[in-house]
Amino acid sequence: MLGKLIKYDMKALNRFLIIIHGFLILSALAGRFFLTSRIQFTEVNDTTTLMLSLTIMLYFLIVAGVVFGTEMIIAVKFYKNLFSSEGYLTRTLPVTPGQHLLSKTIAATVWCIIDILLVILSMWIVIMTPSVADAYSSNKAEVFKQLGITGNMTPALLITAIILLVIIGAISSVIMIYASISMGQLFSNHRILGAVVSYFIITTVVSIFSLLVMTVTGFFSDYLPIASQNGTLDFNFAEYMIYLCKITAMLSIVTSVILYILTYYILRKKTNLQ
Length: 274
Fold this sequence. Notes:
The protein is an all-alpha fold. The protein has two domains: 1-138; 139-274, no CATH class. The protein contains ten helices and two strands. The chain has a two-stranded antiparallel sheet with strand order 1-2. It is globular, with a radius of gyration of 22 Å.
């Protein structure tokens, strides 16, 4: 039954998210075409700078819109399926609240990961123009050196850490949205507003807790850029990213477990459909 639920939840998300992510890729291709055929980088002037700035600004507005749209669609589908009038029909199914929550978490997490991967792909399409690719190929060793990717610190290790962080971050983001919506249902009136308020409270508490943990563990003193005696910045990007991945993953797992249990409890014990 869980498999059928996941399939249903994926189908419900697909019809909207495929469209907006298709638009994202088309926008990236259009931006790539514009950058490579319409802007002459060999003749840098005010017009070129303005066109480049507007293109980049428009592209990042589209990216922000797609990311926000993805989260909104995930939130709306969760709310409508479990807490609106549709929730009465949902609760007639021979499925436990835990199965509903797990199914929707898996489906939404898959789409969050797809969202992140497609955003990265679109950035690669826009940024990796022939001139940029040639410059990178010619200076690859120096780029790795500046990033601190030397010795035991390999590109594969850094990429693996980032991929794991993306997966954990996607799960955490989905659970945070679901927890906020579920907490909003505890309000007697204005439940959608309550969900929004709950989301801001959760993100604020998590941010403060993360800041405290990073301060106590020496993150700011050990890994942020420090000016050396010769005036240069003593900063190893790769080590910074690895440590950031570790501490962020730990915090995300802890908060996700707490919020998942809270969401499950509300779904099982406190749900009152209106």
